Amino acid sequence: MKKSILVGSILLLSLTWACKHEPEVVETVTEVESEFEYNVDQFADLRILRYQVPGFEELSAKQKELVYYLTQAGLAGRDIMWDQNYRHNLAIRKALERVYANYSGDKTSSDWLAFEVYLKRLWFSNGIHHHYSNDKIRPEFDPDYLKKLLAETNTSLKGEPFEVIFNDEDAKKVNKKKGVDNIASSAINFYGQDIKDADVEAFYKIAYKGPKDRPIEAGLNSKLVRENGKLVEKVWKSGGMYGEAIDEIVGWLEKAEGVAENEKQAASIGLLIEYYKTGSLDIWDKYCIEWATSTDGNIDWINGFVEVYNDPKGYRGSYESIIQITDFDMSRKMAVLSEDAQWFEDNSTLQEEHKKSNVVGVSYKTINVAGEAGDASPSTPIGVNLPNNNWIRQEHGSKSVSLGNIIDASNNAGGSGRLKEFAYDEEEIRLEETHGKLADKLHTALHEVVGHASGVINPGVGQPKETLKNYSSTLEEGRADLVGLYFIMDPKLQELGLVDNWQEVGMASYDAYIRNGMLTQLVRIELGDDIEEDHMVNRQWVSSWVFEKGAADNVIERVNRDGKTYYNINDYEKLRQLFGELLRETQRIKSEGDFEAAQNLVEGYGVKVDQEIHAEVLERNSQFKSAAYTGFVNPILTPITNEKGEITDVSIEYAKGFTEQMLNYAKNYSFLTPGN
User: Fold this and answer.
1) Is residue 219 within 8 Å of residue 206, measured between CB atoms?
2) pLDDT band at residue 9, thresholds of 50, 70 and 90?
3) Above pLDDT 70, what percent of the chain?
4) So what's the pLDDT on residue 26?
5) CA 238/CA 620 separation, integer angstroms
6) Alpha helices for 259-318 (secondary structure H)
7) CB-CB contact of 465 with 587 (8 Å)
8) What's the DSSP call for residue 468?
9) How far is Cα 389 from Cα 288, in angstroms, rounded to an integer?
10) N or C: fewer beta carbons within 10 Å in the chain?
11) Nearest to 389 by CA among 313, 322, 317, 303
């Protein structure tokens, strides 16, 4: 084995409920023994990595076959995510891919290189809007050059799909700002172009919501449009919208059902198939219950319309797929949090009436990803907690997973020196280098297992997407973050055998969270912009609130040294108390459906940016070459068959290039026609 010293990226987790964790890159030095090449490509503000799949070779042939079928089912729905993100995405992607594959002219010119980068950025974001900022990606070539490429490759792209690449229309994929019509100002393709906020609110006041006290996730799998003057849902199902791709998904799921590891797992896949065929959200709930309680077996999956962050109103789910293999060693270590979930609930700072009396069935595993698609790829979560429906979670429990091999790949891929640039002193650096990785893993686990399982909504209060509206997602993520922050500095973690020094692990976690929330995450937005992405917003409102409330006691000190701003924590125990106070208030807001308080918290602390500090952060960060965002290519799974065509084994190899994988997917997994 080749031994080398790499600067490994430590992940400050931007945690989410269904948990699209977008990691923030900080740096520390790590010794890594590996010949595996993680880095694949880097362009714009993005880098592409590979991830290994530990344990794949130890699976039985039947288990490998199951993994193969599930990954194929996931990829079959890839086009859905593109169309969901924007109505012209598929037309634009298919045209640009044709140009790329057929152009035989000068490929050394600055225009061609800019075209390549633009196409790669679209592949990364599953469309023409940035995956994180939601702003439209601007090409660095002009319309005449694209017209030339189209003509020379006999490719058609006319009218609005061509013009929108260069004009100012549909500039924001998702707009959750206060004071605007969030639906009308969002380019996301979840609603007809003439639909407004008032239409959505009126429709779901009277729409079917399921049995009393067991509501369905209304609107999760449909597009809301106006037909003949009437609002109707175009359901995503076999025979309905996206039916061609969904039929492909179903075909692979039916194969997977036949090689399931056990009867309960097969029953779960069967219900997923029935859901896709019928589009019934009542069946979706049955599937979620069966899936959440199916905890035996080494293989698991996420497949469906899951995340609602791309909907300004929080109804519609983006398509995603993640195929998982259990990491047994780490899962055993972290399972203790599941076993003690009730202790954490009982000892939290929540008002007694907002605590759960019985935290049900939170299963936690560290898993290794075998394949991803849709909203989970190329930009992937690093942790997941599902299902989302509150009553299912309360009555039947949920599954929480940490994507171990994704985190390891990011940690081992190298980096630069942002930690030393933005940390206040050598002690802060020492704490991060010594405890940062463990602190991040524990915060992920606490956020997922304890945070999202915690708290109850008061009787008679509606779901957060109805009461808190466009603030529901950032409030939920901040609430779960606060649960993790409060307990990460608790001696209980050492009692459970999870840490050797609970105080220093907690201190490292607090340093990293404040450093990220107040400074380093600002590298992800343009100077002058507000913070809009839900997870960035929640990190800032949590950090800014405790900074302000602790000012009288100088709990967190803002220091200017040599023209550079730092945040130094002077009293970690008082900071923990402040996290606890904010947790109590955030749960109250959710439990009572207090929209005004949610708005005041988010708008008052989470959205606006100190422009002087932002300019300073961008200048300090300009010295570093590592990209702000990370994505991944998937492993390539290939079935090995006998003379009868039966699968006897599945081989695994690791993709050589990002462009090659994207073109392969375009060739083999394009099942939707643009405009349909």
Assistant:
1) no
2) very low
3) 94
4) 43
5) 52
6) 263-278, 281-292
7) no
8) T
9) 9
10) N
11) 317
Domain assignment present for 357: no
Which residues pair with residue 420 across a beta bridge? none
Nearest to 474 by CA among 299, 312, 652, 262: 312
Mind listing the pLDDT tens digit for each residue in 328-340? 777 777 788 888 9
**Which burial class, exposed, middle or buried, applies to 72 when counting CB atoms under 10 A from its CB (0-12, 13-18, 19+)?**
buried
593, with CB counted inside 10 A (0-12, 13-18, 19+), is buried
**Distance of alpha carbon 436 from alpha carbon 641, whole angstroms:** 45
Residue 15 sits in which domain range?
Answer: 1-38+415-632
HSE on the CB side for 489, CA within 13 Å?
22
CA–chain centroid gap for 411, Å, is 18
- One-letter amino acid of 133: S
Asked if residue 407 lies in contact with residue 382, where contact means CB atoms within 8 angstroms, the answer is: yes
CA atoms within 13 A on the CB side of 51: 30
- Structural domain total, the chain: 1
What six digits make up the tokens of 575? 């900071």
Identify whether 15 is part of a domain: yes
Within a domain: 373: no
Least Cα distance to 579 among 509, 481, 468, 448 occurs for: 481
Alpha-carbon span 592 to 587, nearest angstrom: 8
Q: Which of 233-247, 413-427, 568-582, 626-640 comes out lowest in average pLDDT?
A: 413-427
In a domain, 212, yes or no: no
Residue 16 has pLDDT above 70, yes or no: no
pTM of the model: 0.80
Q: By the 8 A CB rule, do 298 and 325 touch? A: yes
Q: Would the CA dihedral through 581, 536, 399, 216 be positive or negative? A: positive
Alpha-carbon gap, residue 348 to 454, rounded angstroms: 9
Residue 526 — φ and ψ, nearest 5°?
-75, 145
